[in-house]
User: What shape does this take?
Amino acid sequence: MDAKFASDAYRYFLIWGICASLAITICTIVDAALVGNLVGAEGLAVANISTPVFLLYALFGITIGVGANVQIGRLLGASDIHTANRVFHSQLGVGLIIGALCLCPIFFKDAYFSFLGVTKELYPLAEQYLTVVMWSAPIFVMYHILSVSVRTDSDPKLAAVASAVVILTNLSLDLFFMKVLGIGIIGASASLCIAETLGVLVLLVHFIKKDRLLKLRLACPSISDVWKFVYNGFGMGSANIFGAVVMLVFNTLLLRYGGESGAFYVAIYGVIYTVSTIPAGIFEGASGALSTVTSFFVGESDVDGIFIILRKALIVAVFSGGVLATLCAVFSNLILKFFGIRDIGAVENASMAMRLFALSMVFMGINMIITAFWQSIERAKLAGAMSVLRNCFLLLAIGTILIPRENIVGLSASYVCTEIFCTLGIVIVYIFRSSKKYVSEKYGMTGKCMECSYRIEKESMTQISEDLERICEEWKIGIKQAFVINFICEELLLNIIKYGLSNRSASNKEHYISIKLLEKDGDYILRIRDNVSLYNPFESDGDEIDAGVLKLIQKKTKYCDYQRKMIFNNLYLII
Assistant: This one.
């Protein structure tokens, strides 16, 4: 039962994390499909050339968001709410500054478009599409930051709702602007920017909720704050900037060596990239859930829980990657036709590239999960090295060799080879620099610690009393402190049974409670966690006896705080 807390927490964050990631993925697919069918191959090529711009915004948002929230999660796990909020406020300050700086390219459009690889033929469409996007840069940056922060503050469901709002708004406005009003590719960019703005507004709703731990305020960040954010988030966020660099180089190679078919190959690359966002979205959701829950468990020094989460995440990556690779290989022709690629000769060549790319999906999942794991346990150098090799140097080295020879098929082969080589690198690191040893030494408990889980039922009372009595004897805890520890656990369990499980008969959910006792600096810290739905015993409508008992508990402790973290209620006391 001890593993259930880690498993349940990861499952909850995984489901809503994947929903949030896939919502953005679907937006990308919808845009590409509508642009390809309503504007044509040139519009699809512009959308692909513009992708590095979105990746740049994601670089800043995800790097700052993940980097700050790795710290915030650890601090929340250690019940240091004050410092967690200080980091959160600095993060928002950094995000607004960076968002404002992202407006700069508006003032030198021609040079910016030239850098992106926009040709004279594509310039009119690119100007329409990108002008709207560039004015919305701060919104894109803040959306990524707020989405990560809301998930860390135990509200992944709202992050998923925000993503759903983005996709529904984007789809509706896409059809209205492009199909009904007929305003072309500018409608695609306008709909996405409006949708992202609404998504930010939905995320801000979290900060008016009563049970939130993070408060919405701004603070001027220090240089050390910015450095920590970048250092902690680079391994995950840098994938976006490297992806932008790779797309720029690969688009250039396809245009140069593809001859008259160069622009068409760029369009095919756009389709392959768009399709790849589906497995990437699932893996990103799995990685985000792993990063969030792991950071909490790092703060709690729960080594076993950390590796339970890692195993769950790898299983999700391997299974989903295998299923999606099979579907992509089998239905490659239908996928290409969906995006407006219908020429028989072109489909055959593009289909071969699509099937080859599908081979990389399982390895992609493993590599993304491990990168996120390394980042969350502060092995940032390994995570950064993986990101640099996987998303840039190794991929570019292989691509510059294969693309001039095999064009679009060589491009797909470059991704496959890169993912396989990086997975082999993970195996080598596992053999020579085990994360298990690193985590145990860095985050494991050095003092006395006991943790046990029990079903929430009256029959558990006897077992809890016996376990606590045994521990108090072994640790030689004084009679008064031992009595207070036992008294608190018994009364809280009875309180939950009386008032927290009023609707239990209507639910088949298994309810359980975990009691953790540890010694630190001469004090005894007691953490009691339960999986009952939102329920705070210190705010319950009990009788006078219950109220008196709760007041007594507060008087007998040096510190007492009841919070909702992850999907559990947590009572943290210092005795």
